Amino acid sequence: MPSRKRSTRARGHGLTHLTAQNRPSMVDVGAKEVTQRVAEAEARIRLPAKVARALRASGHRTKKGPVFDTAIIAGVQAAKRTHELIPFCHPLGLDKCDIEIEAAPGGTIIIRCRVSVHHRTGVEMEALTGATVAALTVYDMCKALSHEIRIESVRLLEKTGGKRDFHRPSARPRRRA
């Protein structure tokens, strides 16, 4: 049987989830230091003007219920279950998961998901999953109003506490986790 030893940078591409034989593998985080890991992700949804007006007028409610509150609950649930959705994510007991939803001008909905944990691995996938599922929930709850709703972007804004911190220059000022 071929050796299952991992290469830290498979074939020089920096892909950590591949073995030296170019096979998929979960990263071994056992030797890493436990630190506070924080990540924040953002999803942006564009609503047609008619839908944005209708949502504002209804207090962001549809026949299915309160859109933003439901999206927050769905996003937190998804962040906590990321390891069940993304094959090589480690199961994590999150310390905190906050989702903020803002109705911005021009029919844009901005969703930010901030996650923290004390662990050996980061939580950027949990933050991205939380923001994405919250955006999908907004779409689901509003699709009866229009199928022209667009989830325009999902991106990592920051991650801290690991080997390499990341801060998107255009991201808003940091909040404490």
Please, could you describe this protein's structure?
It is a single chain. The protein is of the alpha+beta class. The protein has one domain: Molybdopterin cofactor biosynthesis C (MoaC) domain (Alpha-Beta Plaits, 2-Layer Sandwich). It has 4 helices and 7 strands; from the N terminus they run E-H-E-E-H-H-E-E-H-E-E. The strands form 2 sheets. Strands 4-5-1-6-7 form a 5-stranded antiparallel sheet, with helices on one face. A two-stranded antiparallel ribbon has the order 2-3. Strand 4 and strand 5 form a beta hairpin. The longest helix is centred in the C-terminal third of the chain and has 19 residues. The protein is elongated and about 55 Å long. The termini are far apart. The relative contact order is 0.23. The N terminus is likely disordered.
Q: Major beta sheet, specifics?
A: 5 strands, antiparallel
Please give the count of helices: 4
**According to CATH, what is the class?**
Alpha Beta
- The count of strands amounts to 7
CATH architecture: 2-Layer Sandwich
Any low-confidence stretches, pLDDT <50, length ≥5? 1-12
Give the spatial strand order of the biggest sheet: 4-5-1-6-7
Task: Return the domain count.
Answer: 1
Evaluate the radius of gyration: 19 Å
Query: Helix/strand/pairing class, anyone?
Result: alpha+beta
Q: Can you tell me the overall shape? A: elongated
| Oligomeric assembly | single chain
Q: Would you list the SSEs in sequence order as H and E?
A: EHEEHHEEHEE
The average pLDDT score comes to: 88
Quote the CATH topology.
Answer: Alpha-Beta Plaits
